[in-house]
Amino acid sequence: MDQERAVAWRLALALCVALALWPLFKYQLGPDRELRLRFPTVGWPVTGSVTFQRGMHPPKARELSSEDVSPVTGDGIPEGQQELRIPLPRDARAAQLRLQGVPATLTQVTWVSQRSPPLWGDAHPAQPFTQEGFEGGVHVRVPRLSPGLWALERVDLYQVLLTWGLLWLALETRWGRGRVADFGRRRWGWAKYALGPLLTWGLTWALFFPGLVSYDPMAQWEQVLTGQYVDWHPAFHTWWMGVLTAPTGSLGGMTGLQVVMFAVLLGKVLEELEHWRVPAWARWGTAAWLALSPSVGLNVIAVWKDTAFAQMCLASVLLLLRAERTGRLGVGGAVKLGLCVASLCLLRHNGPLVGLPLLAVGLWRYGDWRARATFATVAVAVTVFVRGPMYVWMDVQPTPPMLPQVWVIHRLALAARAPDLTPEDAKLLEQIMPLADWRERYDCDNVGRLIFGSSPLLGHQERLVGRGVGLAGVLWRFARAHPQQLLAHQLCVSRYTWALTSNLYVGPFNGGGRAVDPNRVGVRTRTWQARWQARYEDFILRTYYSEGVWRVAVWQPGPSLYLLVAGVLVALRRQRGLSPPWILLAPLLNALSWLLVTPNPDLRFVQSTVLLAPVALALALAPRRVRTEAAARPLPEDAPPMPVPRESAA
């Protein structure tokens, strides 16, 4: 009875603290709200100013920025209408706007939270307003903005419940007994490593809320909003976005969950390295390295599919560290690893270059037939089901003709410049795009000008249909005649993966704190702390544009590739077995695949290399593998014999 009473007191104490923290969370944390004004579409730019009042403070006025007055025409807005979305403090009580270039025909004004939808009521509550026209514009007055700051939202409920649960778990872990306390003490092994990255990545997320959003994921977000899917970017990742955004209805909720998932996975990986007897300074050094790395933190809060891909690479490393330590994969581990392989194959179009070798080596590596059968069945069944019945059921439009031939198109532009190009080959290229465009649009390190923007090929992709064999023949003849030029092209386009200096795209940093590319659905950067964001953005841009050691140390992925390979080689020698390259096979294969098929110098492609290079170095410090208590624990009598690793058997 005393034990039950103590649990109840700790539960009540945790609830009281969670409720006491809620006002601080509500008042201090979160992006600005948006005042949205809807009116008939105009074909000219809009300017203006806004005056608003916060609580008992005097009115404050500011000019509207270019981003404030950029029109939003998607996100469910009726055809022929557009919106201006103007950020105002969450505790603003009233607003007045003077808009130049807007007629006095406003149809709707709404006051919308960017944190999450409300617990009840309309997510886009209409506001009473008055409008008065003047020559060339309109004066809009919103006398009362409702709901106010303290209106309950979904995220408030999540915050209270999560804080309550974590505080109770912490109290039980420290002073309690029983299953909850045991659960907490078991989790502390990885939670202590996850805390630092969680805090630093979470701060980065708050500074650039809702995250880094470039044109590619923005196109996928529009597909989520409309329910119409095109497989230019894998539809599986588009659905992935839909699932992660469902709790909050925003991309910020997705990137926030990514921060938590990456931190948990990294904590578990470092806990496994502790079981591998990696020195404590190396484990904590790895945690600090990844927590403080701008390139890692910014990619963790990015929306693109490469972030999810890197997450699956990290998950595979965790599962394989555990399997190699214990000497068995097990049916449960096989299911998880099979899901990782399926995800790797589905998240990117070139994902099978990583997923399929991982599947093949896994089937060779482990001798337990039940684990092998489960691993193969899950990986193949999930991949086939998604790419087959699920694509049909969700009416996914097929991949456009240009996407499978991007690799060939890039090299054909080089072939078009050859002085000995035959008339037949020139005629075939002319049928796709004028030879002048082939030659003028060629950049050895970037295919973008050939297929995007004003490229004649972008609007006439049907010209590629049925010509794949012929174009491959043109490339083959050029390769035979000019192998050195083709090799030079390959070194140029892949330079960013291995060189210390190169062109490199690190994210959509558009200046002024904007980390979201322009779009028609109204997604904007809504920082939680403008002053800190400006300082961090200044550091990002100064190190990126520098030409010295800062650029190499902070952004270039080449050093990470060499550290990853060096860590694997040292660990291979120390372990005297194949465990190290097998554990890190996913990031190694990913790096190799981009060396061969990369279309442009994007840091996101090799995110898993940057993320797992310090993990490889830490693994290199582990002593030669010794069976741990987990592996030595007695098994049930009917359990199959523990398989012996292949190199040990040899």
Using only C-alpha atoms, the radius of gyration works out to 28 Å
Major β-sheet annotation: 5 strands, antiparallel
Oligomer designation: single chain
First-to-last CA distance: 59 Å
Mean pLDDT across every amino acid position:
91
Q: Which structural class do the helices and strands define?
A: alpha+beta
Which geometry do the CA atoms define?
globular
- Our estimate of the beta-strand percent is 5-15%
Q: What is the share of helical residues? A: 55-70%
Q: How many DSSP E strands?
A: 8
| DSSP helical segment count | 27
Overview of this protein structure:
This protein is of the alpha+beta class and 650 residues long. 56% of the residues lie in helices and 8% in strands. The protein contains 27 helices and eight strands. It has helices at residues 2-28, 154-175, 179-207, 215-226, 235-245, 251-275, 280-292, 294-300, 305-326, 330-347, 352-365, 369-393, 406-415, 423-432, 435-440, 448-451, 468-481, 483-493, 495-498, 530-545, 549-554, 558-575, 579-583, 585-597, 607-620, 629-632, 646-649; strands at 33-40, 47-54, 60-63, 81-88, 92-100, 108-112, 130-134, 137-142. The strands form two sheets. A five-stranded antiparallel beta sheet has the order 3-2-5-8-7, with no helix packed on it. It starts with a helix and ends with a helix.
